[in-house]
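Researcher: Batch entry, complex prediction.
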Amino acid sequence: MSFITEPSHPVVQVSAAIFLLLVLAGLTAKILRRRHPERDFRELEYRIRSWWLICAVFLGAILAGGSAGLILFTFISYLAFKEYISLIPTRRVDRRVLFWAYLAIPIQYTWIQLEWYGMFVIFIPVYMFLIIPIRLVSLQETRGFLNAAGTIQWGLMITVFCLSHAAWLFVLPPALNPAAGPAGLVLFLVGLTEFNDIAQYLWGKSLGGPRILPGVSPGKTWAGFLGGVLSTAFAALLLAPFLTPLRGFTAFFIGAGIGFFGFLGDVTVSALKRDLNIKDSGGLLPGHGGILDRVDSLLFTAPLFLHFIRYYHPG
Amino acid sequence: MMLPLLRAILFLGFVKPFVLLLLGVNARGIENMPRRGPALLAANHNSHLDTLVLLSLFPLRMLPLLRPVGARDYFHRNRASAWFSRNILRLIPLDRKPSADGPHPLSECVEALKNGEILLIFPEGSRGEPEEMRPFKTGIAHLAETLPEIPAHPVFLRGTGKALPRGEALFVPHICDIAFGEPLTWTGDRQSYMQTLRERFQALAALYPAPPPPET
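Model: Structure tokens for the complex:
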């Protein structure tokens, strides 16, 4: 079910539009550099270069069809969980438990491949929630037990369970979305989530004003938040007819929801980093930071969007 | 003829993907990496992974120059391990307890440097307790004194001791923090040389603030 053979498919057209936007962003950066030779635009250029990599990998997997998207999300969960585990304090005995936690990643995505929804929604919140303390107890190191059980479970929930909700979209019945199929829904969710990140940043930078959560993320303003949510809602209104079965107010509403939850995901990872006293979660994506810095908003928008779609279009 | 090919295949097909994708690295100070031999690369030691991590950062064309240095009693403990470390890792074995009448224990290292190669050495002398730095041994100062124009590049590693500590066979993925420092050359006497090296490592370690210790 590769899309390469269907150039008129909305997923292909939206992907082409995204690449066009990247070219425009690159040109804008070039013009900015020429107009302001005294300023340093290296960060912006790294950022755009990393966007090329992200878009090439993500859209490549979407357009390849088959299980490519599912495999990509498995790998993103792996990278995000690894980054999380490398940031938090762990004890040497925790390695035994972490091994099982890592194993949970391919297993969680296997439930999606098997289209076993019941197992998909309880495996990490119930079974891993039991397996982790069982393994910890068998190690007989009770000092730091609660800390290990809590932090490992939290990492699995956020980097694997939440993110896998985006991947479940791939196995929704194609009839649910006659316009663009399951891949269209994934592209809509991920595209709008990233759009919201950029919109919040740009509105915040250009308007400034009172800060929204100075204790967590000193750079974020009310203007950025509201401007981002509204921009994303309007973008959803325009994009939904191409990629989703949603129309009109429903599309606007879920767009605003993605904007709001994207913000919450962003500030949640910010709170985590502040607690750990670090700025970037890693160095995987120059200009962005680590993988957690990039997918933070998607961690929160993915469950919201999947359950919204399932509620409105049970099938 | 076959061995260089085998080494290149293992390097590109296993070492690089394993370290860069499965393990993951945060690297700083890449501009301080040696670009040509001869040079010394001095790293702190936490895990067998340290050698693989350091190798993986170099381009394929520099692979023939890279020579890890390791303990003879460990790497030559049996014939299979000796063959592998000699021919695949191209490891220079070091006698940790040399006999008084034999050749100088570092003579093979000096030869390699004279041939323009890059030595990967672990001045702690052993992996020790994971993620804890031990006092440096002075073998590196001997090399620097013998060949005073050769630069020593300090490189700080953290995280490999969490992924695969000594005495464990279970590999658990953990990102490795790496920091290369400015190279130093012979200072004129051993004491000031070792002192400078220690200070470089302290500065590099400070680049990566350690997470607070778990409450145990």
